[in-house]
Structure formats: C-alpha cells, structure tokens
Amino acid sequence: MRIGFGVDVHQLKEGIPLMIGGKEIPGPHGAVGHSDADALLHAICDAMLGALSLRDIGYHFSDTDPKYKGIDSKILLKEVYKLICEKNYRLVNLDSTVILERPKLNPHIPEMQEIIAGILEVEVDQVSIKATTHEKVDSFGESKAIKAYCVCLLEAHS
Ligand code: MG
What we know:
Radius of gyration: 15 Å
CATH class: Alpha Beta
CATH superfamily: 2-C-methyl-D-erythritol 2,4-cyclodiphosphate synthase
Distance between the termini: 12 Å
Oligomer: single chain
Bound molecules: magnesium ion
Largest sheet: 5 strands, mixed
C-alpha cells in the first residue's frame, strides 16, 4: 500500500470557463492556467504520482509546453493513471476537498465522481469529493482563487 497527497491552486478570473473534476461549472468566473486549470484533477494527479514517488504533474506535463496549452485535464489524469498501472498499482480510494467560495459545488459532485471513477476504472464510492468555502476570508474567500487537496491510497497488484 502507498499513500499520496496532492494540492493545487489556480487563480480565478471572470469570463472564462471553470472546470472542476472534469466538469464545467456554470458561474461568474473560471480558473486561469496553461491547461484547462482543473485544480481538482491536478490535485488527484499529484496525489497518485506522489504515492509512487513519481514527482509531480508539472514534471510530466510542463506548463510551458505548447502541447499542453488548454488541454483537458481528464487526458492528464488518464496519462497519470497509466503510469500508476504500469508500475502495477491500482487505486484503492481517494479523498479530496475543493475550496471555492462560489458557486456551490455540492449539486455537481455526483457527476464529478462519475467522471473521475470512469477514468480510473473504479467504483464511484472509491472517489470522495468534498467542497467547502473559505468563509469569505483571504484570497480563496474573496473568490480570487480555487484550491483542491487530495489524498489517495494505491495497492500493488501482482
Ligand atoms: Mg494546476
């Protein structure tokens, strides 16, 4: 068994799409980034890479490489999980938290779980997603940024 941890932050800006957990979330702002800036999928990627000491998402997919400009982070997650599977590990479960002041994410969580479980070929209850606000405090509470945390457990398969 191997445990991994990941965290990611993206700045928020008005008038661009907000991608979280592979799903576009309607709202007043979106996340800024070289890829589609999906903080949750990036935190999940980092947790799984970290579990096997395989560096981080920026090491595998450079944020200066034009190849990854605007890329759908579901593709990155799929690539990361391929690396994990090539090392003969599989996901046992992951638990994540997204910090976003608005909009409320709770109505979108089941669909995000479905998307992520589909990519990782696991059951929906192996993918936990939680959401919280930052109580209007600091840059997250002022809707200047989004943050996601993830821990995961991987198990070796013979
Ligand atoms: Mg990121």
